[in-house]
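Please, does this match?
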Amino acid sequence: MVPDFEIPYHTDIMERFNGIDMDAAGKVAGNGFYYLMGDIARLHSAVISYARDFMIDRGFTYCIPPFMIRSNVVTGVMSFEEMDAMMYKIEGEDLYLIGTSEHSMIGKFIDTLNDEANLPYTLTSYSPCFRKEKGAHGIEERGVYRIHQFEKQEMIVVCKPEESKKYYDILWKNTVDLFRSLDIPVRTLECCSGDLADLKVKSCDVEAWSPRQKKYFEVGSCSNLGDAQARRLKIRVKGEDGSKYFAHTLNNTVVAPPRMLIAFLENNLREDGSVAIPEALRPYMGGKSVLTPVK
């Protein structure tokens, strides 16, 4: 799906709508930050709201978690190396800004003994996310592709061990269905075992099509952690026969704008510079079916 007209870089598309100001953000906060404005900011919020309702309609419980977590939760959900590379620490306090709401959502169950009859817990959470994003990145990762602050809708599952394989498939399919409902082609790419982070049993990336680059790029990640997080955080289940065992935990990105916005703008851009709003998103955009550039 490559149109016969040139697709500009995503920040150039946004600038046509007076929708982004990275220069001012650089003065205020430094590199890796941005101001979104006007229709682009509204589109950002609309995508998050649509994702929230999409997941609620699929039976997930909506949650807004703490945006800071203690170190014992951090080390329970991820490796120390990941923590050092990703997390911002609050000076003088045992608190870290979350890099993803999965961390505080799984942390919700720390030191719990859960009745088997109550499983699975299926939750979808909204949060801002904060990441150091250390290291140099290529030309395709300028703009709003890799930044220090973004917002995300997430989904997590806490379930019985024998059900984690089933929920892994449910989770990644949710994201694929959501993107396709917004006219964005996507695929999943399974991660080989050598690329898996310390705690993961199985993981796949959800990738969206970029007609500008003529290739797919990562917009989310789905993971089955088995009982690794549950062992560290002591998330246990009490069986109906009185037995006790560790739960399995899973997580997946629903949507993470602004990276998701890149895919949205490229795939819904028209030759005249306007952007089509798919039917599913129109109620969240005040009924608009198209965005018209001001430049």
Remarks:
- The longest strand covers residues 149-159.
- DSSP finds nine helices and 17 strands in the chain.
